[in-house]
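Ticket #4471: structure output looks truncated?

Reporter: J.K.
Steps to reproduce: submitted the chain below (328 residues) through the standard prediction queue, then opened the result file.
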Amino acid sequence: MKRIIIFAICLLALVGSAIATPVTEEQASSVTVYAYDSFLGEWGAGESIAKAFEEKTGIKVNLVGCNGASELVQRIAYEGKDCPADIALGISDSMLVDTSLFASDLDAFSGYDIDQGCLIPFDWGVFAFEADTQKIQSMPKSLEDLAKPEYKGKFILIDPRTSSVGLGLLLWTIDAFGPDGYLSWWRSVKDNALTIADSWSSAYGLFTEGEAPLVITYTTSPVYHVMWEDTTRYQALEFTNGHIKTTEYCAILKSSRNRANAELFVQFLLNEGQESLAVANTMFPVNETVELPPAFDYALRPSRIVSFDRQKIVDNLDKWIADWEKIW
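Returned output as attached by the reporter:
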């Protein structure tokens, strides 16, 4: 009987250790970040920020690309509590996310405008159409103008199901024309658009390759060309419809086994990493103390900027997307 009891105790101990899965020494000195691919790309801020963080703290950063922001959110939801990431980086304010997967005890970030109690902002931008002024002279002045015959085949759209920029355009049209009128706009431009890309990278690549002189992007996108190509040929266009603001967030996963490291990385991102992030993403930093390069003076600041109500997105997005799919 004594042997049975001892065996049972040992078995329970083994089961308990398997459930707890102790953190290895290597894991304890690292942090894993899920991010959209452009953050990790050749021109992204990921590698430089990771290197600077590692040099400062000795903590290794494991960067994991998840294609676009939508795929990142879907992957985290699919992996759930078993997700190996400590941080999710690149969630936009237009996305529906399972907030139960993210840590909400964020006292260390109380100075920032935390969204839904768990999403920490790191940069922001404004959606706009951008023009290649060497390829087009007569500029559209509104969303309605894009339905005119003169713009047939001259602009590139992005799928709202796979891209935060595409979703931003969808919300922009809903703000401009209302939930009962936005579909009419999409019908009116369907035959005019050159194509509808699956990601911002694909769309912007086609644009810079000269496939079309107009593309949906951000007001800050021309800054990139000023900084790295010394040209002002690319210009964001102000539309009479107003423009939608978008904010990008990161979040610490509730299942993170390196919580202290994750907090240190996010703090670094919001301080030392802000200028690198703003330059690489060509977005505005949330840390207003950051001094930006003069090239940011070329970023359009529309006279009317609006933020889309998140609760409306939560309540209606599935229907809006489903109705949009019937057209496209």
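Triage note (M.O.): checked the attachment and the full token line is present. The mean pLDDT is 89.
Status: closed, working as intended.
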